[in-house]
């Protein structure tokens, strides 16, 4: 499942469903959404039909009233109730900041101001989320870009639902996938000019990590903040949310199907890789970064080798690349192996064991070409990934201390191979 629901005018509309809570249950899909400004919706358009099809009954607009007056709000409709709860009380212009402003500390400090200033509005927003949960009705909350004010409220809701901190951080960073489109919108509204702040529209993991750390330092925990500062009964609120928004994780999963990717899939593959990169960064794994591989990379890999997609029940579950030579890591070799690269799964929604199943499928494909070895490499600084491949039957056979992966700086990788058949 792709969390970003596709609209023409909206870029950051996401389903919070599928995230797992600490008790093993997961958030029910189709119940809780976050978004950029719904003021960009217009009636009698495909976007409006798409929005209406979600069955949303409550809309929370976290923007200032002056923003709504200048830029519009979601059209009135009998199908939902609309609430304007402006949780931010100290306006600031991100686009006009200087390049010397560090994104992480700066935005984390602004979020703490919102947490202190907007208590009345945040309290009411949490009450509305609980009321919608009890009524079994979908709800969406949004601000302008769906990042800052929306990100703060999402962090509180996810925390009360028992979602772990790394996933809360990851959810915040998913705005990075929408950042190019949000920046393009800003340029279009400002005669093609660029914001002076390079951090405009960005959502690096440091922002939410620093905010959650500061909230803990000042208040003890999300629950303590909700009880002591917002004046709500946090344990009771958490029980309500968990009772109505969590469901047991599936015990059975649809079988995987596999198909060779085509050039038209390149954008999907970039999105999948960038999502996996954000998952890693939120957990302190500095291996992949969003934006490192573009559509041209995946089209090139299709021309030089193969790229495969895995699906479960019609949804993308993962992908991998299959190369027939890999001189950068392995040097010149006879045609005795296939080289597996960029094994990636959709975070939180791929069936358990998808990675191992894709490895097996890649090995089958290599064997079908009459090649006796499957080979791959992983960062030498990632023992967790090395252990994963060793558990799948791969043996460490060496190390390449200066692999040139095309990113401008060589790095050390561990070389692993598996004898097939």
Care to describe what's here?
By secondary structure, the protein is of the alpha/beta class. The protein has two domains: 14-247, Protein tyrosine phosphatase superfamily (Protein-Tyrosine Phosphatase, Chain A), CATH 3.90.190.10; 256-419, Aminopeptidase (3-Layer(aba) Sandwich). The chain contains 15 helices and 14 strands. It has helices spanning 46-53, 65-71, 103-117, 119-134, 148-160, 165-173, 179-189, 205-219, 222-229, 234-245, 266-282, 295-304, 327-330, 354-368, 383-391, and strands at 14-15, 26-27, 32-35, 58-61, 81-84, 139-142, 246-247, 256-260, 306-312, 315-323, 337-345, 373-379, 395-403, 411-419. The strands form three sheets. Strands 8-9-10-11-12-14-13 form a seven-stranded mixed β-sheet, sandwiched between helices. α2 (65-71) links the parallel β4 (58-61) and β5. The model has no long low-confidence stretch (mean pLDDT 96).
């Amino acid at each position: 499942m792709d969390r970003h629901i596709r609209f023409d005018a909206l870029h950051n509309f996401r389903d919070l469903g599928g995230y797992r809570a600490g008790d093993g249950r997961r958030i029910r899909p189709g119940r809780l959404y976050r978004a950029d400004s719904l003021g960009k919706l217009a009636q009698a358009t495909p976007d409006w039909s798409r929005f209406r099809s979600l069955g949303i009954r409550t809309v929370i607009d976290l923007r200032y009233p002056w923003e709504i007056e200048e830029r519009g709000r979601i059209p009135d409709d009998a199908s939902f109730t609309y609430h304007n709860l402006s949780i931010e009380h100290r306006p600031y212009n991100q686009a006009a900041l200087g390049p010397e402003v560090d994104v992480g500390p700066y935005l984390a400090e602004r979020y703490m101001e919102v947490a202190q200033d907007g208590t009345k509005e945040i309290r009411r927003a949490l009450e509305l989320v609980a009321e919608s949960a009890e009524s079994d009705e979908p709800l969406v909350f949004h601000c302008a870009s769906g990042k800052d004010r929306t990100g703060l409220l999402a962090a509180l809701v996810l925390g009360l639902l028992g979602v772990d901190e790394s996933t809360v951080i990851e959810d915040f960073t998913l705005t990075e996938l929408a950042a190019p489109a949000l920046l393009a919108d800003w340029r279009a509204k400002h005669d093609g000019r660029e914001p002076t702040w390079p951090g405009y529209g960005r959502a690096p993991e440091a922002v939410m990590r620093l905010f959650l750390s500061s909230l803990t330092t000042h208040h003890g925990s999300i629950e303590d903040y909700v009880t002591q500062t917002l004046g709500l009964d946090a344990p009771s609120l958490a029980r309500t949310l968990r009772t109505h928004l969590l469901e047991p994780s599936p015990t059975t999963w649809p079988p995987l199907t596999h198909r060779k990717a085509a050039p038209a899939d390149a954008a999907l593959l970039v999105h999948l890789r960038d999502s996996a990169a954000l998952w890693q960064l939120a957990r302190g794994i500095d291996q992949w970064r969003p934006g490192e591989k573009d559509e041209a990379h995946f089209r090139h890999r299709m021309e030089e080798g193969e790229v495969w997609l895995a699906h479960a029940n019609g949804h993308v579950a993962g992908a991998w690349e299959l190369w027939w030579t890999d001189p950068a890591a392995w040097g010149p070799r006879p045609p005795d192996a296939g080289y597996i690269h960029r094994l990636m799964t959709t975070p939180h929604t791929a069936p358990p064991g998808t990675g191992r199943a894709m490895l097996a499928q890649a090995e089958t494909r290599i064997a079908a070409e009459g090649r006796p070895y499957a080979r791959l490499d992983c960062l030498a600084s990632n023992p967790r990934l090395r252990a994963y491949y060793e558990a799948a039957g791969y043996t460490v056979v060496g190390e390449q201390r200066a692999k040139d992966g095309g990113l401008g700086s060589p790095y050390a990788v561990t070389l692993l191979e598996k004898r097939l058949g």
